[in-house]
Amino acid sequence: MPDWLIATGLIGAVLFGLLSAFFPPLNAEIYALAAPVIFPDAWVLHVCAMTGGLVIGKMSHFVIADKGAVAYSRRREAKEAREAAEPRRAAGPIREQLTRWSKAMIDVLDRPRLGPLVMLASSGVGFPPLAVVTVAAGIKRVNMALFFVVTSIGCLARFLVTAWLVTRGMSLGH
Questions:
Q1: Closest Cα partner for 166 from 29, 17, 11, 27?
Q2: What's the pLDDT at 156?
Q3: DSSP secondary structure string, 21-81?
Q4: Is the pTM value of this prediction over 0.70?
Q5: Would you put residue 58 in left (φ > 0), alpha (ψ -120 to 50) or beta?
Q6: Is the dihedral of CA 152, 155, 158, 163 positive or negative?
Q7: How far is it, in rounded angstroms, from Cα 167 to Cα 43?
Q8: Cα–Cα distance between 31 and 163 in angstroms, integer?
C-alpha cells in the first residue's frame, strides 16, 4: 500500500475518532471493526490513530464540563431550592433508581481507587457510558491527566481487542 494512502488513512482515522466523540451514531467500534479489513497490514496503527482522535474529542468534553462546573453548581442549587419549595410528585421507581445510580457514580469519580476503576470500565467496556462519565468527571474536577491516561488505556484496549478479533475471524475464513 502506498505511503500517501496510509498517511491519508491515518488522518481520516483521527478525524473519525474526533467526529465519533461529538456525533454518537458515528460509532468508534465501527472503525475498529473495519480497520483490519481496510488496512490489513496497518490496522494497529489506524486503530491507535482513531483512538487518539476519540480521546482528544472526549477531553474537550471534559474541559468544557470542568469549566462549566461552577455554573452547573449554581443552577443545581437553584433547582434544589425550587424543588424543596414545590410539592413533591412521584417520579417513578425506575427514574428514582437511575437518579440515585447517577449520583453515586458521580460521587465515586473523585475517589482515588474507585474513580479510576469507573473510568476504566467506562472506556474499556462502555458501561457506564463514556459520554456520561466524561462530563461527570469534568464536573467533579477529576485530575485531567489521570482521566486522559485511564480513558486512553481503556479505549485503546477495547478497540485493539475488537480489531484483533476481526483479524482472527478473517484468518479462520482463509
A1: 29
A2: 98
A3: HH-TTS-HHHHHHHHHHH-TTTHHHHHHHHHHHHHHHHHHHHHHHHHTHHHHHHHHHHHHH
A4: yes
A5: alpha
A6: negative
A7: 9
A8: 9
Q: Is the per-residue pLDDT at 75 higher than 90?
A: no
pLDDT exceeds cutoff 80 at 47: yes
How far is the C-alpha of 134 from the C-alpha of 151, rounded, in Å?
Answer: 9
Q: What residue type is 147 in one-letter code?
A: F
- Average pLDDT value over all residues in the chain: 86
Which grid coordinates are listed for 55? 480521546
Pick the closest to residue 131 from 33, 64, 72, 67 (CA basis): 64
What is the reported pLDDT for 1?
Answer: 61
Residue 145: helix, strand or coil by DSSP? helix
How far is Cα 119 from Cα 142, in angstroms, rounded to an integer?
Answer: 10
End-to-end CA distance of the chain: 21
- Over residues 115-121, mean pLDDT: 93
Cell of 14: 483521527
Amino acid letter, 28: A
What is the pLDDT averaged over residues 74-87? 69
Q: How confident is the model at residue 158 (pLDDT cuts 50, 70, 90)?
A: very high
Residue 113, SS3 per DSSP: coil
Unique residue bearing C-alpha cell 470542568? 66
